[in-house]
Amino acid sequence: MTPQSAKKKQDSRDRKLLDTLLETSAEHIRATVIVAHPDDEILWAGGIILMHPHWDWFILTLCRANDRDRSRRFHRVLGHLDAHGKMADLDDGPEQKPLHAPEIERTILEHLPRKDYEVILTHGPQGEYTDHRRHEEVSAAVLRLWRKGKISTDYMLMFAYEDSQRRYLPQCDPDADFKTSLPTDVWQEKYRSFPVIYTC
Ligand SMILES: [Zn+2]
What we know:
Rossmann fold, 6 helices, 7 strands, binds zinc ion
């Protein structure tokens, strides 16, 4: 078997396992979403959260804990999703100065209530938007923690959206390893209910 066909076979096995996981509504599935900002959990993972309301969800946002308005809205979303969550307060000023990698890693570890999950979702390496530093930093930090064994998971899922160098709003990356379509009711809830909570 060539390396390419071995990889193809492994990818196909991974996809089958992931399909099986995504079809289950078992309550024992512990899933966490680790994102930079409140609203990222809905923008990039709202569909999968809404499709699995019986999973035990924990949502961690690494910025804006001291932004009273965003914090209030985030907690309303947690209530709506019947999820647990926490906010941290890493710098998110307009200058978007680079954060120190150890600070991001430490913040993640301090705020996660456990270190092992069946599913971890986080930003993609390219950060969904072109040059969105915080998204990219969070993605890299989660990956490093996972590689170092500081957090563990059966499935590390990274958001796969791209904006073609800001030419359009982020869309599903055509090269994503895994794509899923949202049922109509889930789509409607994601795009109608939650924007109201975050913007009105
Ligand atoms: Zn964000």
